[in-house]
């Protein structure tokens, strides 16, 4: 059997599960301690407050995104790479969905996290542009440099707003699913549809089919 996680790691895992389920504002350090059946003092030994827990979980979210949002070093990109980017993106957003659900409040509550998030956005928008340019260079997308920049920004807006869109559209937390998040990735693919090169259209259509999940009316 694998070793049991230490108390610090158990706190982070429990906090992540509770934040994702109920949202950060509804979860206190006392809730986390009670969930783990440890004393509040034991939790405070590792984390002085909820803000510190959120900051460390954000570290992990940022590392997850940085780990996949980069071009292959020794070859051009393919449609298989695009599928890999999308699956990795979906996985990181699903695992840390509390970040996007409560983003404005998290940044208002923690000025240091707000600064970090701004740098996070700047870095990964640059990475997203480089990835899109890689698909252009590989002949899979046909875009001007200006269009690469615009599509990268629009894709970022859709992806980072999708969880909040679902909640504000009446999706309860117990009904949020990975399938509904897949639809957000599909909406990004729709943004790119007019730029797909003829030779890539069949494979691109398969990608769209893979990620399209049904939504309730009137969204379709």
Task: Explain the overall architecture.
Residues 5-65 form the HTH tetR-type domain. Residues 28-47 bind DNA. This is TetR/AcrR family transcriptional regulator. Keywords: DNA-binding. The chain has 2 domains: 7-46, Homeodomain-like (Arc Repressor Mutant, subunit A), CATH 1.10.10; 56-211, Tetracycline Repressor, domain 2, CATH 1.10.357.10. The chain is built from 11 helices and no strands. The chain has helices at 7-22, 29-36, 40-46, 50-68, 79-95, 97-101, 103-109, 111-137, 145-168, 178-192, 201-211. Helix 10 packs antiparallel against helix 11. The longest helix is centred in the middle third of the chain and has 27 residues, at 111-137. It is elongated. It starts with 6 loop residues before the first helix and ends in a 9-residue tail after the last helix. The mean pLDDT is 90.
User: Which CATH class of the largest domain?
Assistant: Mainly Alpha
> Structural class of the secondary elements?
mainly alpha
**Number of DSSP E strands:** 0
- Largest beta-sheet details: none
The CATH topology of the largest domain turns out to be Tetracycline Repressor, domain 2
Q: Short summary of the structure?
A:
This protein has 220 residues and is mainly α.
Secondary-structure map:
Layout: H1 7-22, H2 29-36, H3 40-46, H4 50-68, H5 79-95, H6 97-101, H7 103-109, H8 111-137, H9 145-168, H10 178-192, H11 201-211
Helix pairs in contact: 1-2, 1-4, 2-3, 4-5, 5-10, 7-8, 8-9, 9-10, 10-11
DNA-binding region: 28-47
InterPro entries: Homeodomain-like_sf (IPR009057), HTH-type_TetR-like_transc_reg (IPR050109), HTH_TetR (IPR001647), TetR (IPR025722)
Domain HTH tetR-type: 5-65
